Amino acid sequence: MTEAPQNQQLPLGSNENVEYDPNVADAEDREAQNRAEAADRRQTGEMKTGGEKQ
């Protein structure tokens, strides 16, 4: 059994440009999109129902 290098650099996904396409999205993609939109609303202070700032 071989061990993985301890200082191996893993790719970061935070700067990737990923486009959401509802035509090819599955249930997990739609759930992730909904979570991302909810997180964006929380970060910008928008309320869920009206899109108004708190």
Question: How are the secondary structure elements laid out?
Answer:
Elements: H1 27-44
List keywords for this structure.
54 residues; mainly alpha; 1 helix; 33% helix; YfhD family protein; YfhD-like
Q: Would you mind describing this structure in some detail?
A:
With 54 residues, the protein is mostly helical. It is 33% helix and 0% strand. The longest helix has 18 residues, at 27-44. The protein is extended and about 50 Å long. 0% of the residues are buried. The mean pLDDT is 77.
Largest sheet: number of strands, sense, barrel closure: none
The number of helical runs is: 1
Estimated radius of gyration: 18 Å
State the order of secondary-structure elements, H for helix, E for strand. H
Strand content: under 5%
Taking pLDDT < 50 over at least 5 consecutive residues as the criterion, the unreliable ranges are: none
Number of DSSP strands?
0
> Which descriptor suits the 3D outline?
extended
Class by SSE composition: mainly alpha
What does the average pLDDT come to? Answer: 77
Please estimate the helix content.
Answer: 25-40%
Distance between the termini: 56 Å
In a nutshell, what does this entry contain?
The protein is mainly alpha-helical and 54 residues long. Helix content is 33%, strand content 0%. The chain is built from one helix and no strands.
